[in-house]
UniProtKB/TrEMBL annotation:
Keyword Zinc recorded: yes
Active site positions: 84, 144
A Pfam family reported for this protein in Swiss-Prot or TrEMBL: M20_dimer
Cofactor field: Zn(2+)
Gene Ontology molecular function: any one: hydrolase activity
Protein name as annotated: M20 family metallopeptidase
InterPro entries membership: ArgE/DapE_CS (IPR001261), Bact_exopeptidase_dim_dom (IPR036264), Pept_M20_glutamate_carboxypep (IPR017150), Peptidase_M20 (IPR002933), Peptidase_M20_dimer (IPR011650), Peptidase_M20A (IPR050072)
Domain Peptidase M20 dimerisation: 179-273
Keyword annotations: Hydrolase, Metal-binding, Zinc
């Protein structure tokens, strides 16, 4: 390991490595639960109380209560992390943990095992000292990378009971934290036509693909960069053969919106959609997946605290709004939420995913300082 790495960063990196080397692809229930075992043991070492919520189709979720605050009914701080990654089981064989200078590589190291581990160590630091002014709960979910279908209600319930929410998604663009996110709207769109022989009875067919081509262009025209709305038709399939007029075609649509007014605009657009060919039926299912995470006065106050803590540590903290979603989208409408509190790096979801080792100790101290400053 490089001599330039501080003892504190080396210690953090060694712990992060143990989490990275437990593969935890979302569908791999055994893998996610193995990481939950490791996290439970690491947290139990500082006296925290760990409650395991059995998964339903995905891995288990963990609710960790820091060892201070007792049975206080005072609303506290909720930290949210996810254990699952997008990297399939076996990725470590071709993309193992490795260190090159100030960079550490590995599947899930940036999104978000590095940040989740640093947050755990910040809580452990406080447990070894005098605790923090407010009770702290650290929630680890097993299914964030697929939209948190089995953890969403748990996230919202815990967020409503909290005074503040801190999310350990990775930092962005050189260490910036996230104070707002776009919402996500998802649709499955299907066109139902009529099959016929493309050579001898073409006139008898009603092409589902032709109709879908019109529909795709209509959806894509929703994109308005000034408005903050983007639409991506990301998957498409249809037809049964080149010599058959296609009777069915489907697409999956991802729309990102800046605010709830934009959601209304999208919903009105979808409600008004009609097929160009009246002999083809249009079927649309879906809707709001994650609500917009909009910055407000409560989030401003949280960011001001974080900025002060960062300045004391030695850097100028900046914030941004991003189009990507997180579990913070579920909490921000109920409780002031600060996101992007994880490690600095890049390449989430790729085969070059990486973190900056020099960001580890500052991020641990940032989390600790925020927990100490929230009252």
């Amino acid at each position: 390991m490089s001599a330039q790495i501080s003892p504190e960063a080396a210690d953090l990196l060694a712990g992060i490595r143990t989490w990275v080397e437990i593969e935890s692809h979302t569908p791999d229930v055994a893998g996610v639960n193995a990481l939950a075992d490791r996290i439970s043991a690491d947290y139990a070492a500082c006296g925290a109380e760990v409650t395991r919520v059995a998964g339903t189709g995905y891995g288990d979720h963990l609710i960790v209560r820091a060892p201070w605050g007792g049975q206080s009914n005072t609303p506290g701080v909720l930290i949210i992390s996810h254990m699952d990654t997008v990297h399939p089981k076996g990725t470590l064989e071709t993309f193992p943990f490795r260190v090159e200078g100030d960079i550490a590589f590995g599947p899930g190291i940036y999104d978000m095992k590095g940040g989740a581990y640093c947050a755990m160590r910040a809580v452990s630091d406080l447990a070894a000292a005098e605790g923090a002014p407010l009770p702290v709960t650290h929630l680890f979910v097993a299914d964030e990378e697929v939209g948190s279908p089995t953890s969403k209600d748990l996230i919202i319930d815990l967020a409503k009971a909290a005074k503040y929410v801190l999310v350990t998604e990775p930092a962005r663009e050189g260490g910036k934290i996230v104070t707002a996110r776009k919402g996500a709207v998802r649709y499955d769109v299907t066109t139902h036509g009529e099959a016929s022989h493309a050579g001898s009875r073409h006139q008898d067919g009603q092409s589902a693909i032709r109709e879908m081509a019109h529909t795709v262009l209509k959806f894509e025209n929703l994109t308005d960069y000034n408005r903050g709305t983007t639409c991506n038709v990301g998957l498409i399939n249809g037809g049964t053969g080149t010599n058959v007029v296609p009777a069915k075609c489907w697409v999956k649509v991802d729309i990102r919106i800046a605010d709830m007014d934009a959601l209304k605009e999208v919903e009105e657009f979808v409600a008004a959609l009609t097929p160009e060919n009246p002999n083809v039926r249009l079927e649309i299912n879906g809707g709001l997946d994650r609500p917009p995470y909009e910055r407000d006065a409560g989030i401003d106050a949280l960011f001001d605290l974080a900025k002060t803590v960062a300045k004391d540590i030695g850097w100028e903290l900046e914030s941004l709004k991003t189009g990507g979603g997180s579990d913070g989208n579920f909490t921000a409408q109920y409780t002031p939420t600060l996101d992007g509190l994880g490690v600095d790096g890049k390449g989430g979801h790729t085969d070059y995913e990486q973190l900056k080792i020099s960001s580890l100790q500052p991020r641990r101290l940032l989390m600790r300082g925020i927990l100490e400053g929230l009252t």
